[in-house]
Amino acid sequence: MLEQFFTCPYCWETISMLLDTSVSRQTYIEDCEVCCNPIQIETNFFNKELIDFQASSIEQ
Fold first, then answer.
1. Contact 1, 19 (CB under 8 A)
2. Name one Pfam family in it (predicted).
């Protein structure tokens, strides 16, 4: 597991999340722990090292 800090795209608070390094690529929705809005999380790992991380609003 890897702790990743990022800024919520809704409330702009810095939050953290534990990422599973054993899965090379993931996309999922996680609620912000501060404002409870849904954030789309995209991760990409290579040899258990984080090479890409995106946290974005699900609103268009």
1. yes
2. Zn_ribbon_21
